[in-house]
Amino acid sequence: MQNNDIQELFNQLTDFQKERIQRELRSYIQFNEFVESSHYAHCPVCGIAEPKIIKKGFLNGKQRVECQSCFHKFVQTRGKLRYNSHQSEAQWSILIVDTLNAIPLVKTAAELDVSTETVFHMRHKFLLLLEQLLYEQPITLEGIIEMDETYINDGFKGIKRTSGRKARKHGERAQKRGLSEEKLCIFMGTNRLGQELVQCVNRAKPSSKEVIQVFGSVIKEQSILINDGLFSNYDLIQQNKLTSMVVSDHQTFTPVIHLNTVNSMHSGFKKLYRHYRGVSTKYLSRYLALYIFMRRFMGMDDQEKLMVFLSKTKETLASFTKVMVKSQNLLQV
Prior knowledge:
three-stranded antiparallel sheet; 11 helices
């Protein structure tokens, strides 16, 4: 289709349709300008805040820049998610959107025309970034807080094991009944302001010490804690001087005092867990971080999600290697 044909068809649209297309075009132009900008919150070499960066040609097809504070030259992707990658910005954008939308590796690999192993490493570099962002932005739960635990089966997906329990098939139940060492305990907490905390505690029932380790410095003193009466919560309640509201079943729920929000979080993560047909236990913390961000950006379109994360990558030094993917921040329970 020629440009004249496109212009003629555009003129046939209503004013509302024209405005919508123009808005989309402005959004894409803004996005491209944002990606191509050389702004750094910190220099990846000397660490100075808001450095003056100038362009210095190209190196292996990548834009090279120079910091006017330390005069080091480096490629524009240094300290960024794409630094140790041969994939383009466009391919990384697709990977980010597909990960946030829980698209399978095989489909993303087909779209990017790369191997599933490459997509796996790209995805886990992104998940490591999400974990880092959560650590850099600690939250405080206050007011009316819902807290509850849930349990999922452990998994050794992709790991060759020569000892321990017999391997399970996808969807198969744990071999032991009840809360055994095959069950991973995940604590979730949220308040009425939408702040959320999700963390895997241990195997089987948590101890009082583990509950305090997760929530002791997070929950503000003299808040109202809605819980199911787990005995391990008692020390936390005493230490932080919390008002405990126990709701053991739906009969005791009220429009205000309930566990509906945290129970919805449980259901959402288990749905994601089943969608992936389980994930390896050592990577569980990364997928919990992914789940938190998926909840934060519900309702956003793909373009908005990309703008949010690309802005975060410009403010955060986060570059990872394949070795780091296999060894950094692994869950040990």
